[in-house]
Amino acid sequence: MLTPAWEVEPAAAGGPQLVHVNATATGGGVSELIGGLLRHQDAGWAVIAGTPAFYHVTKYLHMLLHGRSDPEQMKDPQLMRAYRDTLAPQVEWFAQRLTPGDVVILHDPQTLGLAPGLKALGVRVVWHCHIGAVVAPERGPGPVWRAFHTELATLDAVVTTLPEFAPPGVRHVFVIPPAVDPSAPKNRELTAGEIHSVLARIGLTADSATPGVTVTQEAPLPPDARVVLQVSRWDPLKDMPGVVRCAVRLPADVHLLLAGTDPADIPDDPDGRAVLTEVQELLRDLPEPDRARVHIVNISLRRPELNALVVNALQRRADVVLQKSLEEGFGLTVTEAMVKGRAVVASAVGGLREQIANGRNGVLVDPTDLDAVRAALARLLDDADLRRDLGERAREVVLERYTMPRLADDYSHLIATISSGETTVRP
Ligand code: UDP
């Protein structure tokens, strides 16, 4: 019997409760976001249960939203049946814990199937879709929106990062960008000594090892190397293999750090192992001098504090942070790098186009044009003043627009609006 679990139980309170529901307590931007938000919001956090078969369906739906799965498979009635059959019995768990008037925020497609069952309990149901997809409707989101017709019709509101990411026909759309917490372990200031010691301890710069972090490299990262970093799940849309392809023909003192979550730790991300294998095979085929300039850091999510500290130290060590995603609703890794004053090169796709003003607080590139990506990296690596200027403005924009108190305020506005029955659409 699959049963959800509280990651954070809501405090017993007199009034209506607010509860976030997602698919995993660790791994990826959504869990990072909810964890940070709960430090600024009085709310609970429940995590649904799933099976490998269920996560294959949800990953298929995720990729189909981006127009990167075969829509023909949607014609198989078994697919959505398997999805709904996994979620339907889990409504009972919520029935025992929620009361009419409570507000539930369902995050991403993994949880959307709960909407009708929760609505029948008399709670208000909001779907926060963190995925941004605007590909040709018939290839991309169209088949998904049709498959979820029943669920979408029951929602009180939908939240997206950009207006164009919203499903059609939904009356209440709130456009709310995500946020980071500058004081969280992932982002807090680190001294040069702390950065040095973390990177040595995990074995990146010294002959050492720390349980929970696996570094794969030919030799330690030289102290004077110029560093380009990408931090991501091993998801096909993050294009880690494309990042490796960029490494060749960069100057000989430039090293590439690829940091990612151990695929075994993310149940709803079944493609991770295959992407990591693809990267390893690519590395094997690289000429030895290029291979020696690529370092893979695999971080276990079973030790969240260590993960946060390592990601923080890597982002601060990087001269340039790259996010070469092929699609992205919103890239938290980019915001995390920006709040640290790093110079960022990111793909001109999805929400990343909103996060970065090209040439002002970062650089946007076409991720399919490897020469352009390489040229942008080389330009920033060669110009410390430019990196500093971009980084300073990047930090300013994050502090102004992308912090947790702002996100908590946006949610408060949403809840007040749907609770009063008002039908405003927030720009
Ligand atoms: N992340 C992490 N450890 C890793 C790789 C990623 O903690 O090894 C975090 C990263 O710092 C960020 C989140 O996972 O907070 C990824 O969020 P993003 O929005 O960039 O992408 P998503 O995974 O949601 O598609």
What does this entry look like structurally?
This protein has 427 residues and is of the alpha/beta class. It has two domains: 5-179 and 403-419, Glycogen Phosphorylase B (Rossmann fold, 3-Layer(aba) Sandwich), CATH 3.40.50.2000; 192-401, Glycogen Phosphorylase B (Rossmann fold), CATH 3.40.50.2000. It contains 18 helices and 14 strands. The chain has helices at residues 29-37, 52-65, 77-87, 91-95, 108-112, 115-119, 141-147, 149-154, 192-201, 240-247, 272-285, 288-291, 304-317, 332-339, 352-355, 370-381, 384-401, 404-420; strands spanning 5-8, 18-22, 44-47, 103-107, 124-128, 157-160, 173-175, 213-216, 226-232, 254-261, 294-299, 320-323, 343-347, 363-365. The protein has a seven-stranded mixed β-sheet with strand order 1-3-2-4-5-6-7. A seven-stranded mixed β-sheet has the order 8-11-10-9-12-13-14, with helices on both faces. Helix 15 (352-355) links the parallel strand 13 (343-347) and strand 14 (363-365). Helix 2 packs across helix 3 and helix 10 runs parallel beside helix 11 (272-285). The chain starts with a strand and ends in a 7-residue tail after the last helix. The structure holds uridine-5'-diphosphate. Uridine-5'-diphosphate binds next to helix 1, strand 9, strand 10, helix 13 and helix 14. Residues 28-30, 32, 186, 231-233, 259-261, 299, 307, 311, 330-333, 336 line the site of uridine-5'-diphosphate.
Quickly describe the structure.
The chain has 427 residues and is of the alpha/beta class. The chain has 18 helices and 14 strands. Strands 1-3-2-4-5-6-7 form a 7-stranded mixed sheet.
